[in-house]
Amino acid sequence: MSTITVDKVNTIKTLNNIAESGLRIFNKEQYTIDNDSENPDAIVVRSANMHSIKFNNELKAIARAGAGVNNIPVDQCTETGIVVFNTPGANANAVKELVLTSLIAASRNLFEGVAWAKTLEAEGEKIPKLVEEGKKNFVGKEIRGKTLGVIGLGAIGALVANDALDLDMDVIGFDPFISVDTAWNLSRNVHRAMSIEELFAKSDYITVHVPLTADTKGMFNEETFKIMKDDVYILNFSRGGLVNEKDIAVALESGKVGKYITDFPNEDVVKMKNAVPIPHLGASTEESEENCAVMAARQLKEFLETGNIKNS
Ligand code: MLT
After folding, report:
1. Does residue 278 sit in helix, strand or coil?
2. What is the pTM of this model?
3. Predicted-complex ipTM score
4. Which residues are designated catalytic?
5. Name one GO molecular function term (predicted).
């Protein structure tokens, strides 16, 4: 029987519930070769950093229960014949829902308004007075008719684009891995596919849904901020490294970027008043964790039994 090590209790429960999985599954807070006498055939991992881990010789595959594979040494795995899977699309709905929630909440100053209300110590009749004050302090803006630029039209980007249209936004798109024409034809959801410079220039809101690679690293930087509209809102639910941390802090300070909603808080950004740091909650729903675990289990089962590699 094949053995799998996983780093998440929820994932274990889900894997165990898959009656047909036929895999022997056990818990490891973090996999280490030194204390691991079981020498698993495969590992399912969500967030644990696998870069510093020495893998056992029997290891055949690693499945990342999520989209990004930055916590796995993919090149080293490829060289040593360890197959790396991810679970594309399995958490797309969870991320889409949080992107759109944050977009509206940020536009209505909801994060600031709620935080302010929570700090009020007043009671009884003082509350109505403070509510009056809040109404004036946190006047927001509506998203209807505003232009949303979606960078990356894959599983998550396409869902965001689709639902933003239903919210009466004007949706434009760019995808770094497919041509403008292909993007246009593929996505009925995007009014207009265009170059990234055009998208930067036209968007009131920009949401980014691409992996972190050498090409996309720091794509939001001092130079690209210059092309953007003043007071643009940027949403980053992909990877922190897509945005140059120092440059975004400067752009937030000057008001060039009106708000930065990020699922990847860092020191420079957290202290900025107009940043909305979210503790990596994009994919954190019960449904998404289950979807990812199921997809990972199916991929590994098929691979370990038949040698077929199906990354879906
Ligand atoms: C992903 O890459 O899909 C996300 O980082 C998901 C997660 O939070 O695990």
Report:
1. coil
2. 0.88
3. 0.92
4. 239, 267, 280
5. phosphoglycerate dehydrogenase activity
